[in-house]
Amino acid sequence: MDNKRLSTSDFLHNVIRAKRSNRISIDELRISLHERGFGILLMIFALPVSVPIPYIPGVTTFFAVPLLFLSVQMLFGKEFPWLPKWIAKRSIKRSTLGFIIMKSSPLLKKIERLLKPRILIFSSHHGTQVIGFFSVIFAVSIALPLPFTNFIPALAIVIMSLGLLSRDGVMIFLGILMGIVGVIFTFAVLILGKKIVIGIIRSFI
Description:
mainly alpha
């Protein structure tokens, strides 16, 4: 099947199957993604931190740095993704990436069934710059070492990426809204503390 017609989840599976080495460099991934570069690279770096679990210190920053590089390029209208050598040369185990994709596929497929081209202004050149703007903010939020706050902006980037890849402006808009909520929650925790914020939320439930 033509790669352009494959769903994002199937495309990711194909990329993993095509690689025979034990490790895959970030640059190999970038080259494999062709015209889907920005959308899928954002998703690949956001997926591992889009689960509500506590992470080892430094893990979220590891994924947030390339997200920030990619988002800034989108913000300034770059057509194809570029990464500095010190990021591009980094590699991830093929089995680890495959595991992440396998575990996320059921959710991705459920979202993909809802996707269709609509409100195309969000997937236009200027729309992509808007996505880049919000992705910069969300990437900064992901980088902050606060437990259970990173996954909302990360999931928002995943949803925006799916929307971008499918030219679905509604999904992009929903991702932006989710990310804004996540950033507000993150900075509330940063300023007030986790216990106070959770107490405030519980008082409204």
